[in-house]
């Protein structure tokens, strides 16, 4: 049991954050497996794909954008986006206020709502990830890569996007934890903005390499069909989702975009502080 003063019980303890990120690996892999069972269904992602249904009410976006808005409207009402680790894809101004009373979250981050990279997440997810993991089919009318499962596939898309978003925006917690571990190392590169130096301070190549190895192993296990002996069948043609694609998702998109979030957060870490507060942080060589 941990006490309230035990650093290991803090949401900003780096090991706690890493455990959260590791659990999100499992979540993302399983959600990709769920999405991969359907066809690409590109109709869901164009503004004219469901114009006959959606545009009657004045909505001009795509099927996915409509599903996101409807889903996030409900989630906003139950205060999902009051949490500092949740960021909606729908503009906050377009979402309703919660119908539940607010929770008193401790002030862990500096303005966590000021950074939102969800537009970039949607772009790489739709342009690169969905086409690479989904089944190739041809319907009875000869239409390629469309199985008509727009509701099921769209729901899986939303779940994937929300999990990836949470994982990437958790970078702000990582940055805050690393900043507090040695403020003096960061303060000069924030006062004289140097994103490259900040990136060097937060980058741990060995941790990233281990993450990618772990991801590949997980994806091969989770995505494999099991033989009679309970062991995975080593046949790439029978994988529920390609392990290589999961690794690529992290290597090319999730890890770099998380670093962008971390650096952007650090660049604003001293905003609103007095000179005396900044000087005190600059003098700290370790945890506060």
From TrEMBL:
CC annotations in GO: cytoplasm
GO MF entries: chorismate mutase activity
Domain named Chorismate mutase: residues: 155-262
Keywords for the protein's UniProt record, in alphabetical order: Amino-acid biosynthesis, Aromatic amino acid biosynthesis, Cytoplasm, Isomerase, Phenylalanine biosynthesis, Tyrosine biosynthesis
Database matches in Pfam families: CM_2 (PF01817)
GO biological process: chorismate metabolic process; L-phenylalanine biosynthetic process; tyrosine biosynthetic process
Pathway: Metabolic intermediate biosynthesis; prephenate biosynthesis; prephenate from chorismate: step 1/1
EC number: 5.4.99.5
UniProt catalytic activity: chorismate = prephenate
InterPro entries linked: Chorismate_II_sf, Chorismate_mutase_AroQ_euk, CM_AroQ_sf_eucaryotic, CM_II_prokaryot
Domain of life: Eukaryota
Subcellular location, record wording: Cytoplasm
Subunit structure: Homodimer.
Protein's name according to its UniProt entry: Chorismate mutase
